[in-house]
Amino acid sequence: MKELLLGFLIGAVMIGAVGGGELAVGAIKLQVSPGQDLLLGLRNFGLSFLLFGYFAMGEELVFRGYPFQALIEGMGAVGATIFMSVFFGLVHLSNPSADFFSTLNTMLAGGWLSLAYLKTRSLYFPFGMHFSWNLVQSFFLSLPVSGLLTNRTIFVPTDYGPYWLTGGRYGPEAGVGTTVVMIVAIRGVLRGRRVPTKAKLAVAGAIVWLLSPLDILPDTLFPVGFLDDLAVLAAAVRYVLDQLEPAGQVDPVQRRVRDRRALDAQDWRIADDPDSDRR
Fold first, then answer.
1. Residue 81 to residue 115: CA distance in whole angstroms
2. pLDDT in tens for each of the 279 residues of the chain?
3. Which own/partner pairs from 71-78 qualify as long-range (CB within 8 Å, at least 24 positions apart)?
4. What pTM value is reported for the model?
């Protein structure tokens, strides 16, 4: 229950930050839906709660449940996380108005949710984050969820752009705000690990490649044109995860020096102890 409530809070805060940022800069405007009253609002909230809870649980069982756990046993946590994250993004390509950036953000979300499971070994944590993200985005912010917009919302949104910020008809999950909060969240889940400089350079190189007009396959050949970008991204993520070291891990040479000093200190304590000769 603790993981569920914590996940629910984290997901709500994250999408709240994305939507709040768009509201703050005037990229979107919200107006109260016509005919909105307390009874209708409670009814729509209840229906949204059930709907998004059902879909979040279904996706978590598929993408972070037994298939993911079986992949961990067969190919390791790193390979399983990359595979399921890419698969999670590609599945959402069939959603209305999906494009490269919405797919990239969905893959980041898949990584975020997979790492959340690995951190707790409990589906409650990623389910809570997934559920609250969708619920707050749809009902409270009244914005499309992965290209899908319901009429059971509090407000009627107006999108003033730019597209790279709001995600257009796909919603915030195709915008740069989601990219930023996902990267921050993944870093938070991995907190307690040291990231070597060469791993940071790998991430920087992958970002430069994604933003560069240079391509092995032209992006105009959708969706085949994005395969080279996905391959570079997957390779960078794999490399970074392989390079991560637990916080506090001591270099073997440093460990030997530390142990030698501990033994020396113990010898001094024994030498100073007047009763040491009688032991």
1. 7
2. 788 999 999 999 999 999 999 999 999 999 988 887 888 889 999 999 999 999 999 999 999 999 999 999 998 888 899 999 999 999 999 999 999 899 999 999 999 999 999 988 999 999 999 999 999 999 999 999 999 988 888 889 999 989 999 999 999 999 999 999 998 888 887 765 555 677 667 766 766 665 565 666 665 565 566 566 667 766 776 676 666 544 444 444 445 545 555 555 555 555 555 555 544
3. 77/118, 77/241, 78/238, 78/241, 78/242
4. 0.71
